[in-house]
Structure formats: structure tokens, C-alpha cells
Design brief:
By secondary structure, this protein is an all-alpha fold. It has a single domain, classed as Methane Monooxygenase Hydroxylase, Chain G, domain 1 (Up-down Bundle), CATH 1.20.58. The protein contains 13 helices and no strands. Helix 3 runs parallel beside helix 6.
Length: 271
């Protein structure tokens, strides 16, 4: 019959073959007998997969904007925001792990920590939260260090957007966009004034207006992710130090103050 499913895969590529599920599903190796360690591993592995897709989409969006295909970047940035929504929802699953559950295997983690995630660091560098000191946790890994250093040689996504705005005739200081940033994004009054002009007349600057909202949407989800991270950590380990040596909740709370696109948030006060 025409609608009979294929069942013989001796000479065909199967679902598992295409997705390399043998490798993916055999990559979980708990180092303790604690039942909740599998949850902990899967949570972090799936997060890394989502971050891999985020980097793919952010890179494509940055190239599109650099080539003046700004509207094409909107879909990519919207997808990144939806990925962040998935990452936010994942905290709900991890929060089912109680302090008693976690303490049964926490010591087996040694000094390993999400703080050492190369992909997370690449995402932050791409979005503008840059600090060359953050190369140090990856100094033992030559490949990871090379990837991070290569990213620092690239303009941030926000710089690429501001360069595009300058090409559209907007008043953007050359010092802001001339060279790839190696420091966290700081507010620039002229850039804030530029965005104010965009928001005061959206019809005249529709492409930049929509780009601004896509960036705010992305950072909105990113801020929620950070907040959920703090809440989950405090719920599970209280005020203990992180396994990687950070101050745990205190460190994560400081991260809540980081602004990726400061002018886009502060310009709202001016409108």
C-alpha cells in the first residue's frame, strides 16, 4: 500500500542515523549513584545544544546586518529569543531537584561549573558583555581560548547594528563602531539620542525601530534567564559558594545588573 511506512533500514538512513542518536544518548555518564544526577546532566547538555543553535543564529544575524540585509536578521533574532524562552522553561524542571537531592552528588562535580561554559561566554561576547579576563577560566583549553579570542576580534552584534544605522544616515559616533569592543557596552549619550530619534518617528525609521524592539526582546529574555538562574541556585544551595569558586548567588545577583544594550532601555525615559 502507498501509505505503508518504511520498516527496512538496512540500506537507508534512519531517524537515529540522521540525528546520531547513538552518540547523543550515550553521552550521559553520571559519576555517582544519585538519581538526580541524570537530571542535572541532561539539563546542562540540552542547554548547551540550545546555546549552539543560539550562536548559529546570532552569527547569521550579525552577517545579515553587516551586509545590509537587516530585515532578514529579524527572524533570526526572534528565534534566539524563543530559544531563550526554552532555556527559561528548563529551570522549572531543574527546580524539582531539592537541596537534599543535590547534596548527594554535588561533591563529585569537583570544580566544574556552568561558569566555565565556552558557548555561554561566546554568547555574552557576541552580545557585548566582553571582558578579556573571562578568558582565564578557559586557558587550559587552547581551542576554546582561540574561539573566544577570535570573537573578541569581531564587532559585537550591537556594534554591527550601529554601523548599519550610520550607513542609513543616523548620527553614530565613529569611536563607538570603529573597532571591535573588548569591554562591556557602556552607555553613549549620542547613541541614546539616535535611538530617541528612531522611537519618536517610527514610520521614518521603521527598519531600525523594528531592530531596536528585536534587541530589547532578546535582552528581556536574557534577563529572565539570569533571574531564573539566581532563583534556582538560591533554592537549591542557598548562599553557598559555586562549585567553580564564584560567590554563588551573590555573584549571579551582580550579573543581573549587566546591560547588553543600555541605550535601548534608558531611551524609554526620554520619550
Amino acid at each position: 500500500m502507498a501509505d505503508r511506512p518504511v520498516t527496512d533500514f538496512r540500506d537507508r538512513m534512519s531517524y537515529g542515523d540522521y540525528l546520531h542518536l547513538g552518540q547523543v544518548l550515550s553521552a550521559q555518564h553520571p559519576v555517582s549513584d544519585a538519581p538526580d544526577e541524570m537530571l542535572f546532566i541532561v539539563q546542562h547538555q540540552t542547554s548547551e545544544l540550545w546555546m549552539k543553535l543560539m550562536l548559529h543564529e546570532l552569527g547569521a544575524a550579525r552577517r545579515a546586518v553587516a551586509e545590509d540585509h537587516v530585515p532578514q536578521a529579524f527572524k533570526m533574532l526572534a528565534r534566539v529569543s524563543r530559544i531563550m524562552e526554552q532555556l527559561n522553561n528548563a529551570w522549572d524542571v531543574l527546580r524539582t531537584m531539592t537541596p537534599s537531592d543535590y547534596t548527594t552528588f554535588r561533591e563529585t562535580l569537583g570544580q566544574s561549573s556552568g561558569f566555565q561554559s565556552v558557548q555561554y561566554r561566546l554568547i555574552e561576547f557576541t552580545l557585548g558583555n566582553r571582558n578579556a579576563d573571562m578568558l582565564r577560566p578557559h586557558a587550559h583549553d587552547a581551542e576554546a581560548t582561540a574561539r573566544l579570542e577570535a570573537e573578541l576580534r569581531e564587532p559585537t552584534l550591537y556594534q554591527v547594528v550601529l554601523r548599519a544605522a550610520a550607513r542609513m544616515g543616523m548620527d553614530v559616533p565613529e569611536r563607538v563602531i570603529a573597532a571591535p569592543s573588548r569591554a562591556p557596552q557602556a552607555e553613549v549619550p549620542e547613541v541614546r539620542a539616535m535611538w530617541a530619534a528612531v522611537y519618536r518617528d517610527p514610520a521614518a525609521h521603521w527598519t531600525l525601530y523594528e531592530m531596536a524592539e528585536k534587541l530589547v526582546d532578546l535582552e528581556d529574555y536574557f534577563r529572565r534567564w539570569r533571574f531564573n538562574h539566581v532563583t534556582t541556585v538560591e533554592r537549591v544551595i542557598g548562599m553557598k559558594r559555586g562549585t567553580g569558586g564564584t560567590g554563588g548567588v551573590d555573584y549571579l545577583r551582580r550579573m543581573l545588573a549587566v546591560e547588553l544594550f543600555p541605550e535601548l532601555w534608558r531611551v524609554r525615559t526620554d520619550l
